[in-house]
Amino acid sequence: MTTPITLTNGLRLVLIPTDTEIVAVRAFWPGGSGQETAATQGLAHLLSTVLTKGCGTLGSQAIASKIEMVGASLSADNQSDYFLGGISCLVRDLPALLHLFAEILREPTFPEQELELERRNTLQAIKSQQERPFTVAYNHLRQQLYGTTHPYSFPDYGTNETIQQLSQNDLATYHQRVCQPNHMVLCIACSLTEAQLLSLVEACFGAWVVNEPALLAPIADVQLPPTRHTITQTTQQATLLLGYPTVGLNDHDHIALKLLSTYLGSGLSSRLFIELREKKGLAYEVSAFYPAKLGKSHFVTYIGTAPENLEVAEAGLRQEAQRLTEIALTADELVIAKNKMLGQYALGKQSSAQLARVLGVYEFLGWGTAYDQQYPELIEALTAETIQTVAARYFSTEPSMTLVGPA
Amino acid sequence: MNSHPATSIETLANGLTLIALPQAQAAVVTADIWVRSGARTEPFAYQGISHFLEHLVFKGTERLTPGKFDYLIEARGGATNAATSMDFTHYYITVANHDLTASLPLLADLVTQAAIPAVEFEPERLVVLEEIRRAQDNPERQIYQTLASTLYGDHPYARPVLGEPEHLWAMSADIVRDFHRARYQPQAMTVVLAGGLTAAQLLEAGRTTFAGLSRTAVSEPLPAIALPTATTGRFIHPLPRLQQNRMILAWLGPAMADLAAGVALEFISTMLTTGRTARLVRLLREEKGWARQINSYFAFHHDPGLFVLGAQVETPYLEASEELMLEEIQRLCRGEFTQEELERARRLLVSEWIFGTETPSQTCTLYGYYSTVSNLDQLGRYRTLLDTLSAIDIQQAAQTWLASIPATLIFTPE
User: In the β-sheet with A73-78, what is the strand arrangement from edge to edge?
Assistant: First the structure.
């Protein structure tokens, strides 16, 4: 249903037919924060905030006006391994807005005064992060897991020092290096016909010539010895994170790790929810997550609890990960975890924007849109034995621990 | 008159309202039970009981052991959750289309037949106490709570939905169970079903599941609530762990019954702060660089709503920003806005409506909310007003509700 079309300049176009007036356009291109160095931390985020603020002869207010006057929205974001931009609008407005979107990607001007404004806002945002104990803890845990020079350890907004240093040239150079049609995937969920969309996309992006091949630095492999770190904040709850080094999304173990994260942390019937919240009343929030990354990722279990419960809570989190290395999931547990993954997958593809994002990422990662059908098969193929082996591979080691809470 | 082309509404003999909204392209159905009971109508001594009850409902019934419901829904790949607010409490599941007939009776049993077992009561109280602690660690939440208590005074909207620890300690399983029996009556409920089945299928599932639910002879009248009176003045609050000043200007607004005025205030908030070209965003953030995270909203409630204008403001610009915000409000009161600004707001609000009814769960939330706090005719009117509201209507609402001096709250790092 969604075979990608490749334009002559290499841009890969994924079209998702719909029957609604809502249109979602999502573009993916390489880079993201994963290409930052210690000296350029925060570059990807700053670039994303300034990207939509000038293109061709249009200034920030002129761009925003074109979008807002038709009730549409425009976004640009950075992930750890790619950039993502998009437009959500009604079908009647797509032609004009797709031209604008193409101009933003092809000819951004990164106006100096917009950079200064967003630089200042970013410095304020860095301060604001301190208000959220979970963010403070997770930022530090990533440093413990990756060391301070690996891009996956950098805080999203960068640091005061790096944000003050970044120049217009840094933004423009980085953008030109990674935002090239031959590395871009454009995904459009829309009710127009394939022929209509193809001619529109050709008109907007067809004349875009490749400048030079994008050379991306590979994401380095690091594995640091586990550490424990406490950050004192005058909070009522203690926020405790345990982090286990794992692998990236192209590894064989990826799906099994996703299942483990579902089993431990997803929903009201998840293992951590039942054992630590429902049975012991230790927490309101207790969960697990495993972020999808190209390079080596990590698996986190976490809890927010009263300081006097910390020991029990940490022992509980550890024990639940440990248990998965020792005993296999029962047949029933396995079926349920699989059904949850399948169900959540379906629930995550309801809106046009969700569909465009999911299928666009698959194409961008080189898995192809057919991965949409393969993913359920990969889930079904998991065995209890595989899952235990994978759990043993990552949860047998001592995790790194980060704690934010009162002294 | 309905805003959704295929809305079917029925009132069952027991008084329960059933709404069916077929969305042919959807692979899932959301079933959402709304109860006209929330923090607004709680006994004073048991603040937070609605929210605590919502937690305890998940502890099962005679037929569903604790955790069994979550298990049965999630094991099928479905999702479930609940939320408590001032004017309502609701419980919902989203499941595959073919799972509705098996899942809906489970949700109905869970919500209407809650056993509230004594043995589950104590551990769940600890969970809610953790939830309160977590809320206290969240500055945004604390700021909202201070705002609500400043503006609403003795009115229940001033209180936290979660309650305070002492209220939770004062409750027992019996007290919560009695509250459930008194409030969760069919005539206080709306069930919304939206998703990829036909209206006939959705209605049939609803009727079969809920027709047998009986109402008890008498339900206690809800406590009478005096309306809040306007608070004005300037309030400065140092907050621990805060890193940035937050400035909030707030006015009490119309109640839900005065829908047109509320919609006009939504236009005003959109003109002021939605998007980069919105007045205050352009002036304060983009041009002067004094503030960020500029936002405003009109919060509809059953009783008087709240118009809020807020921003993170750098210390040297606090007073100037406040002046500028007030000046722009005064200009709107004088009708100083262009037709283009008005039409921009209209397009944004219509888009919000279209994008906000894309999935079954979103649709259920909109219809359930209106049926519970207002009525569905008003929802249809809401959509019409987005198309018809004029510059005069907007100016009049601004004059009526925003011409007075607001309450200004400034939160500063401690």
Answer: A5-6, A12-17, A185-190, A22-30, A82-90, A73-78
Q: Which of A68, A130, A237 sits opposite B133 (nearest CB)?
A: A237
Percent of chain B with pLDDT strictly greater than 90: 93
Predicted pLDDT at A212: 76
pLDDT over 50 (residue B1): no
Return d(Cα A180, Cα A185) in angstroms, integer: 10
pLDDT the model gives residue A216: 87
For A146, the token pair is: 């990756």
Contact at CB, B354 and A21, closer than 8 angstroms? yes
Count Cβ neighbours within 10 Å for each residue of A95-116 and write b for 16 or more, e otherwise. Answer: eebbebbbbbbbebbbbeebbe
**Closest partner CB to B286 (pick from A60, A233, A340):** A60
Structure tokens at A240: 């405790």
| CB-CB neighbors (< 8 A) of B359 in chain A | 350-351
Does the beta carbon of A135 lie under 8 angstroms from any beta carbon of chain B?
Answer: no
- Of A72, A94, A271, nearest to A197 by C-alpha is A94
Using alpha carbons, select from B251, B214, B215, B206 the residue that is nearest to residue B232: B251
Q: Report the C-alpha gap between A169 and B226 in whole angstroms.
A: 61
Inter-chain contact B314–A124, Cβ cutoff 8 Å?
yes
> What average pLDDT is seen over chain A?
96
What percent of chain A has pLDDT above 70?
Answer: 99
**Residue B38 to chain A, least CA–CA distance (Å):** 20
pLDDT at B218 > cutoff 80:
no
Which range is least confidently modeled, A29-33, A217-221, B402-406? A217-221
DSSP for B330-395, written as a single string: HHHHTT---HHHHHHHHHHHHHHHHHTTSSHHHHHHHHHHHHHHS-HHHHHHHHHHHHH--HHHHH
Contact B355 A88 (CB under 8 A): yes
Q: Which of A66, A63, A69, A79 is nearest to A29 (CA)?
A: A79
- The residue type found at B103 is S
Give which of B301, B373, B359, B377 is closest to B34, Cα–Cα: B373
Q: Helices A168-178 and A43-51, interaxial angle, to 10°? A: 90
Could you tell me which residues come within 8 angstroms of residue B127 by beta carbon, excluding any fewer than 6 positions away? Answer: A277, A278, A281, A283, A284, B55
Q: Could you tell me how many CB contacts below 8 A there are between chain A and chain B?
A: 167
Is B375 exposed, middle or buried (CB count within 10 Å of its CB: 0-12, 13-18, 19+)? middle
Q: How confident is the model at residue A119 (pLDDT cuts 50, 70, 90)?
A: very high
Distances from the Cα of B259 to the Cαs of B40, B252, B335, B376, B389, in angstroms? 20, 14, 20, 12, 11
Establish if B96 touches chain A: CB-CB under 8 angstroms: yes
- Of A364, A27, A53, A44, the C-alpha closest to A175 is A44
Which chain B residue has its CA at the smallest distance from A345's CA? B77
Give me A149's structure tokens: 């020079």
**Tokens of residue B174, six digits:** 């019996």
Tokens of A12: 């890969």
Q: What is residue B301's DSSP assignment?
A: -
Tell me the C-alpha distance between B38 and B159, whole Å.
12
CA nearest A406 in B: which residue? B137
The beta-strand segments (E) located in B232-348 are 233-239, 246-252, 291-299, 306-313
**Nearest beta carbon to residue B276 from set A60, A71, A269:** A60
Contact A236 B137 (CB under 8 A): yes
- Separation of alpha carbons A36 and A41, rounded Å: 6
Name residues 115-134 of chain A within 8 A of B (Cβ). Answer: 117, 120-121, 124-125, 127-128, 130-133
Report in angstroms the alpha-carbon separations of A251 from A248, A297, B381. 6, 10, 54
Tell me the residues of chain B between 208 and 227 that have a Cβ less than 8 Å away from chain A: none
Side-chain-side CA neighbours of B66 within 13 Å: the count stands at 18
